[in-house]
Design goal:
It contains twelve helices and five strands. The protein is α/β, with parallel strands linked by helices. Helix 2 packs antiparallel against helix 3, helix 7 packs antiparallel against helix 8 and helix 7 crosses helix 9. The structure holds adenosine-5'-diphosphate and magnesium ion (MG).
Length: 273
């Protein structure tokens, strides 16, 4: 009788997680006989935890990540060019609170997207919103908005999340409109929200992505003013896996051209843009 009324009350209050675990909670309480307050805490925590999980799941879906991977799934031993101390610092998410940027550079397959996604996942776990786009999709979307006279409104979508991931900068060159729009986006987020950007091109090659060294310099200036560059020089993890599967011979590890260091990596805030 009491149990029935309890279930009805839980339903009225939408306490679905408590309802789902009700029997187990009551059974454990009758065995352990906890203090009233401890029992109440356990019951309320069941609901609070479930809600947090639901909230994080929604945030993760809204982030539009290509896949969910974490730092624990990243094999740092395979990529010794990565400075683990630098990664540890990034994992504190201080850069999110400072609205500074993270630029991951390196050849294909070395884990740039994996690390960008892992940072986004960590930011989401800490309660921040993140949004993932490839450069191509981003510029296509904003270009369409521009032609339809609603660029400002559309830009807001990319300004709202604390963390914006822009993946695969440099695989395709941008036309003049794309470069201008990209500049506008970077300027609008400058000192307001973090950008995590991945690119296979070194900074020196950015002129060729944007087709114009002046706009490339202006973009780099804002992007790098408060930023951390993670330079990954190493072998593709995808190749390693295929090699392990016997699909490729095992030649000497490739030695890709090292990518030039950032001109003003982690520069002081006093520098004026
Ligand atoms: P890219 O640098 O081209 O963005 P990705 O981050 O997409 O490369 O990595 C390619 C694949 O290899 C992904 O599935 C990623 O999870 C995996 N991967 C890359 N580097 C590592 C690593 N060091 N440890 C574990 N998995 C890795
Ligand atoms: Mg990638």
């Amino acid at each position: 009788m009491t149990l029935e009324r309890l279930r009805t009350t839980l339903a009225v209050l939408s306490l679905t997680a408590i309802d789902a675990r009700l029997e187990a909670l009551l059974e454990s309480a009758s065995k352990k006989e906890p203090a009233y307050a401890d029992f109440l805490l356990e019951v309320m925590s069941a609901e609070a935890d479930a809600r947090r999980q639901r909230y994080l799941k929604t945030r993760l879906q809204l982030a539009h990540l290509p896949y969910v991977k974490t730092f624990d799934q990243f094999d740092f031993a395979f990529q010794p060019s990565i400075d683990e101390r630098q990664i540890r610092e990034l994992r504190t998410l201080r850069f999110v609170h400072e609205a500074s940027n993270v630029i991951l550079l390196g050849p294909p397959g070395v884990g740039k997207t994996h690390l960008a996604v892992a940072l986004a996942e960590a930011a989401i776990q800490s309660g921040q919103a993140a949004y993932f786009m490839t450069t191509h999709d981003l510029v296509t979307d904003l270009g369409r908005a521009y032609r339809e006279g609603r660029l400002d409104r559309r830009l807001r979508i990319y300004l709202a999340p604390k963390v914006l991931i822009i993946d695969e900068m440099g695989y395709l060159p941008l036309d003049e409109l794309g470069a201008t729009i990209f500049f506008q986006l970077v300027s609008a987020r400058y000192e307001r929200g973090s950008i995590i950007l991945t690119s296979n091109k070194s900074y020196g090659e950015w002129g060729s992505i944007f087709g114009d060294p002046i706009i490339a310099t202006a973009i780099l200036d804002r992007l790098l003013h408060h930023s951390t560059t993670v330079n990954i020089r190493g072998e593709s993890y995808r190749l390693k896996e295929r090699r392990k599967a016997g699909l490729l011979p095992t030649p000497e590890a490739q030695h890709p051209e090292p990518i030039a260091a950032a001109p003003n990596n982690r520069s002081k805030r006093s520098h004026s843009a």
